[in-house]
Model the fold of this input.
Amino acid sequence: MYKVMEIIEPDFGCEGLPDGTEPMCEVILEEESGTKVTVKVPDRELYQKRINEGDMIDYTNGIILKL
Done:
């Protein structure tokens, strides 16, 4: 189980998102032991699953699930 500490959304500036690229967010997670892990998650997945900073989640084998 992890706590979502921070979600960092990409900033492509005036150049915009490169064609065919899906926006990925860096998500900083903290384990119960205090260890922090940074993972990349598609932005749309965070919105679909309504995952926000402060939420408790499960992250196993690259799959993020809100608890």
